[in-house]
Structure formats: structure tokens, C-alpha cells
Amino acid sequence: MANGARSERLDAGMGPARPHAFFVSLVIIFALVLIFTKPSKEIGVQVAATAMTVLLVMAGRQCCYLLCELQRLRVKSASGMLNAAVECFRLPRTSWLVIVTCFVLSFLTVHEHPNELLDTLKRQGHVHFLVAFVTMLCVWRRTQFGWTLATTSSGPAPGDGLAYSVFFTYYRPLSLTLQERMTQYEQDNDVVLAVKKLIVLMPRSCYIEPELGVGGDEDIEVANHMDELKISRAGTRERKYTNTVYKIRNGDDRPYYCVAEGTSQLLTLNDMRECGELTVEQERAQMSKFCDKLRDLVNTNAACRSRILLVEYDDMSEDGRPVPVSSILRNVIRKELGLT
């Protein structure tokens, strides 16, 4: 068992960073050769030339990633292209440190010895580009899903996968009969739902109570449940999907009735953080990825777009107190009704 777990950790990229050690060894050997064979001025020029080529190759690599991501976009929009660009150039701090160092070295050398740097690149440019490409190869690491760049992955990245999972296994089949079930609920219970959509709550803390409002929120209570939706799926006969109707108090006016729930996939991220699989920063990043991907999937599906309302919000106020979920739902309903 121990050997098996160790093998899995190595395959998942969590074992010793052998490519990085190999790269560091190459750098040390290269530096020693220069120190013992070249004068200090020429060493500076050689280092700057190598730094410049590494910077160019790294920029070219990220631009290739950007082109691939833009090609995969289903809907070409300015916001989608901007998000793709941000993701492609979102690198760890160590990578940005290398980039800035390369840029500074190149700039200083070009400023002081422009002719010597250009002559070096003309005479030995192929060698420096070879070093740059070897550098790129040395920052790849092995994962259980294949090979991925160590500079673009710093831990588990479940956000997109969770969004795909909940959309295709839950929201998409649910949306096909949601309108009819809401109408049936109104007839059976003699109430009117304020919004004919499923309100999906996505708090940025990634924590959702087992039942909305159980934490002392007196302005919300469970009204009833809609008829169960039964779908046979993956060997389970008549798998049940249940949606809860909540009653939101609205001051002296008539209360609002709505179908609302939190997305349980965010609880998965919360559990991963509590178990040490994610840091707080990684949890926030994956929460953002999950919300963005789920929003894209919902918006590109006509049935889901008209029946599912995604609500991403801060559930903690600036003074550190939890924001009542009833106030979130009340504001969402008023906005949908055009009252705000």
C-alpha cells in the first residue's frame, strides 16, 4: 500500500522534481564553464543573450497557448478573449521573477554593450535558443493525466471539471421540465413563484448550509418541495432530483416564494481546503474557474439560460459578519422583477 501510494504521488507530479534538479545542474555547469573560460565582461554578455532568448521563447510559448484557447472558445466575445489571455499569462511568482530578471539583464547589457550583444546573438544565436528550449523542456512535469507545464500548474485544478459535471448531470436535464414542475407547484399550493427560475447560490466562501437560513436568518423558511424529478442514469433507476421552495419575508408586503439552492460542488472545494488538498488562494482561484465555466455552459444552452439564474456573491460583510441569505435572495428577486 505504501509503495502504491508513493507511486501514485510520483505519477501525479508530487514526487521529487527531477526535471528541475536537472535544470539547476545544467545552469551550474554552464556558469562554471563560463567563469573558468571567459572574462567577466563576456560572461555578462553571454548571460544576457541567454536571458533574452529564454524570455522570447517563454513569451512565444504563452502566445501559442493563447491562440489555442481562443480557438476553443465557443462564443467569441471581448470578455471571453480577455479571460483567456489572463489565464494564459497567469504564472507563479517564481516564473514572473525569472521573466523580470531576464528582462533586466537583457536591458542593462543592451544599454551598455549593444553591439557586443547583437554580435553574440548573430554568432551563437542557435546555441542560446537551444539553451532556451532545453529550459522550457526542463520545466515540464509528469502528472497522472499526462505531461503539463510546471509553470502553469501549482496544484489540483478541479474547478472546470466540477462545472462540467454538475451542468451535464444535473442542470441540463433538470431544465427540460423545470418550468412545468414550477407551474404544477403553484397550482397544488395556491402560491405564485416570484421568479420562474431556479436560483443557484454561489457564495465566495464556498460554504453552503445544509438548509438555507438555518444559521439564524429569520426572514427565510422552507415552504415546501416541488414534485421530484426522476431520471434513470448510469445504472441507477429513477434517480431522484428534489428542489426546495423557500418563503422570503418582504417586510409588510407579501412574501416572495422562490426555488433556490446552493451548488454543492462548491462544498467540494471547501472540503478539499479543509483536508489540505487546496490552499485558501487555490480554493478562491478554483471557485472563480468553476463559476466562470458554469456561467459559460448555462449561457450557451437555451433551456438553461431561461430557467437557471446563477448568483455569485460575497457571503461575508466587510466587518466579518455573515450576510443573510434572505437578503441575497430578496435583492435577486427584486432585480428580476425590475423593482431595483
From TrEMBL:
The keyword tRNA-binding does not apply. The keyword Zinc-finger does not apply. This is Transmembrane protein 173. The chain crosses the membrane at residues 21-37, 43-68, 89-111. It comes from Rhipicephalus appendiculatus. It holds the Pfam family STING_LBD. GO terms for cellular component: autophagosome; endoplasmic reticulum membrane. PANTHER family: STIMULATOR OF INTERFERON GENES PROTEIN (PTHR34339). GO terms for biological process: activation of innate immune response; autophagosome assembly; innate immune response; positive regulation of macroautophagy; positive regulation of type I interferon production; reticulophagy. Residues 159-333 form the STING ligand-binding domain. CDD domains: STING_C. InterPro entries: STING (IPR029158), STING_C (IPR033952), STING_C_sf (IPR038623), STING_LBD (IPR055432). GO terms for molecular function: 2',3'-cyclic GMP-AMP binding; cyclic-di-GMP binding. It comes from the Eukaryota. Keywords: Membrane, Transmembrane, Transmembrane helix.
